[in-house]
TrEMBL record:
The keyword Thylakoid does not apply. This is Gram-positive cocci surface proteins LPxTG domain-containing protein. The chain crosses the membrane at residues 344-362. Keywords: Membrane, Secreted, Transmembrane, Transmembrane helix.
Length: 370
């Protein structure tokens, strides 16, 4: 609280493999924090074995003219008399008040949009906080208390690399009566370097008083799997024309929207020019066809060399647009000769003509004998 002393508890842990002979912790306060004596700025822990922890308490005064908000304080540590200091900053929220209300805020629901992020995606995490009290008042040790719950602050912090929270903390969210709920939405971003898997964030809530503060784990899933396009028939173009068939599969854990496939190959036109599929559920398979026609002006009709085929798969994951490129496919031109069949047809017609003429001559001779 502003104008009062606060107790700051600092915990250190030896995460190395060697014993720390003489550990010191130093507080470096800046306005609005101050120490009653500079001699109290450093506290000695002593020796600290690997994997062991130790805690020390510091007493700081918050200036009476300080403004509400989050302030930083630097804490330094060193492992020995001649060792260098290492420093880290921590945020402390000042200006919170203490209330005698006994309502408790609980996390009831977490909704991510999209449900599963891809590297580079932006989206939202919406949390629902509920006052779990069921009656307006409660009696404790003979005294009556209201069961309202207050959210003085709520902040979402990433606990792993690759996740960024884009919003400032919520503050002074007011009173929640018994059974009331409130939704808080945070905008988040997943970097391109984020790894697949479940990343954790921490939701820190400041309630009626210190005893009612809480920290909740918020999971966020990242998966880079996407749209796969696979030829379902042999890729060839016969005498400059063909029908090409592909299987399109959504291998991502959640639905994609506005899925479309666009083929490109030099000297070949495709109909339709782009195949729009629309939404695709996880593991859904969709079969599509393109009519391929070689341009009269191109060399595709004369060549027997394979033609490189590129397929572009476009889709949306939430508000995020994505595109996959498949470029290791080839169309094989095939030229089938029609000359032999034409000769056979002509020969057949000639034989039929000769047979008809022979019959007519035979009938004529037969009549003349009569």
């Amino acid at each position: 609280k502003i104008g009062e002393y606060l107790t700051l508890t600092v915990q250190v842990e030896n995460i190395g493999g060697d014993k720390a002979d003489n550990v010191d912790i130093e507080i470096v306060p800046q306005y609005p924090f101050s120490l009653d004596s500079q001699a109290n700025a450093v506290k000695n822990v002593g020796a600290l074995n690997p994997g062991r922890t130790a805690t020390k308490e510091f007493y700081l005064f918050v200036d009476k003219n300080a403004q509400k908000g989050v302030r930083s304080i630097d804490i330094r540590t060193k492992t020995g008399k001649d060792s260098p200091w290492s420093e880290k900053s921590f945020d402390i929220r000042i200006g919170t008040e203490t209330f005698n209300s006994k309502g408790t805020v609980e996390l009831k629901e977490v909704v991510s949009e999209p449900q599963v992020f891809m590297p580079g995606d932006r989206g939202t995490i919406t949390v629902t906080l509920t006052n779990t009290a069921t009656t307006p008042t409660v009696t404790i040790d003979g005294s009556d208390f209201d069961t309202n719950a207050r959210i003085q602050a709520a902040v979402l912090r990433p606990l792993s690399d690759g996740i960024v929270v884009l919003d400032a903390p919520y503050g002074d969210m007011g009173i929640l009566g018994p059974g009331d709920s409130i939704k808080l939405t945070f905008n988040v971003k997943v970097t391109e370097e984020a790894t697949d898997g479940t990343h954790n964030l921490e939701l820190a809530i400041e309630g009626n008083s210190f005893d009612y503060n809480s920290r909740k784990n918020i999971p966020l899933k990242v998966d880079s799997s996407n749209i796969k396009v696979i030829p379902s028939k042999e890729l060839q173009i016969v005498n400059g024309e063909s029908t090409l068939e592909f299987d399109v599969a959504n291998t991502h854990p959640n639905e994609f929207n506005s899925v479309s496939i666009k083929p490109e190959a030099e000297g070949i036109r495709f109909f339709p020019a782009e195949y729009f599929i629309g939404p695709m559920n996880p593991d859904e398979l969709f079969t599509i066809e393109f009519n391929a026609v070689a341009d009269d002006s191109s060399d595709t009709r004369e060549t027997s060399e394979p033609v490189n085929l590129t397929l572009s798969a476009s889709y949306n994951n939430g508000i995020n647009k994505h595109e996959n490129i498949v470029s290791n496919l080839y169309i094989q031109p095939v030229e089938e000769s029609t000359g032999s069949s034409s000769n056979l047809l002509i020969q057949g017609l000639l034989l039929a003509f000769i047979a008809v003429v022979g019959i007519l001559i035979y009938r004529k001779k037969k009549k003349s004998k009569k």
